[in-house]
UniProtKB/TrEMBL annotation:
Residues 155-305 form the Periplasmic copper-binding protein NosD beta helix domain. It comes from the Bacteria. InterPro entries: NosD_dom, Pectin_lyas_fold, Pectin_lyase_fold/virulence. This is Right-handed parallel beta-helix repeat-containing protein. It comes from Paenibacillus soyae.
Amino acid sequence: MASSNYYDVTEWPVGNPYEDIGEVINSIIAHIKSRQTETDVNKGGKPGAVIYIPPGDYRLCTPVLIDISYLKIMGSGHGFTSSSIRFNTPENEWADLHELWPGGSRILVDIPLEADDEECKGAAFYVQRSGNPRISSVEFADFCIDGLHFIEDGSGSGYPENTYTNGKTGIYVASACDSFRITGMGFVYLEHGITIYHADALTIHDNFIAECGNCIELRGWGQASKISDNLIGAGFKGYSIYAQSFGGLLITANNIFPRGASSICLDGVTRSSITNNRLHSFYPGMVVFRGNCSENLVSSNHFLRDHEPWTPFLGIDNGLDDRFGLLSISGNHNSVIGNHFSAAIHTQNIKPIGATPVIIRMVSGNGNFISNNHVVATEIHAKTSDSCFSAQVDALLTTEASEPLAVTTVLVEKESLQNTILDSGSGAQVVMDMTVNAFRATPTPGA
């Protein structure tokens, strides 16, 4: 027996999904609501539905409004491929490329926007419902949301396709939500990939979110959520992962690659964990705690800081100098334990000239515990290339160094007191007031 709660966008009689899939999905949601009106029928009544998007290209001109629980929108492939590589390949070579655009079950976000439109107006999927209970168990799985193009942003950067600006958002959740799941998705060329307010028990897992101005933004406040096993990489103006006023957030097993202004930025986040991630950045400020982040754990992560090797983005950075720190902490009673830091930096590129780069910087707060972190700092003369893939692979595999690079492994500012620093740098590498902080140096071989 076929389920009445399963919908295929290509078989729905209202609208044309290839011309405007937004109109089609909105019509399906209206139909679900018209059928599921009773709140209590045999201890049920509103089971929700599945909306299926087969592989193919579907233009979206009308934002989808989701205001029902238990809705799953799913496709058959996240379809991610690098639009940035294609747009930075000479146009006369495009005819020889195997494909030009992302694929799979692909949504082409083509919403008409004005320059002064609210941010939410550019959302392909807009989730909002007032009243109680909170909207719950909305799922997005296995399809691609493609912003198509970036536009000139007035910065004079030269090439609009590299601005990470277009006013478009993949998924925008505006109201308090519970147990949402975003899995197996592809997000590309959106100014904001995922923006969610007031999330509870949120899962963002196993997605490919890259070449977006910002990838994941958890705003307002939230609790008890996880960001796990994703491949993520924002643009130079935005965040790969941002969370605001969150408690109990788990960020684990993600591969976060350049070129986000921050790999992870936490603002007023407490009792959360950043563990077992691979973090790669071309700039300082890889992980930033601000707004009194407290009682968080940062453990077993690999931090790699090196230089941009791809010629289209040479000379672009996030505006921070090398004294800012790869990990910058403002807050109390945080633990930074057992992380590996690789700093492969050319001394000619250090900002300001002659400065000593900082790895971990305690900006303010007290009672923080930093222990058993290993820092490898070398001067690397990285090569640049017009090929994004080969340039970055060559840079990653280059370990030959002309000489060790002098760094400050831990800097404790005077506004930060009563911290404990153990085995995270030699006496010459740690800068702190030892009368108000505790310190044990990493033993130096042969000393």
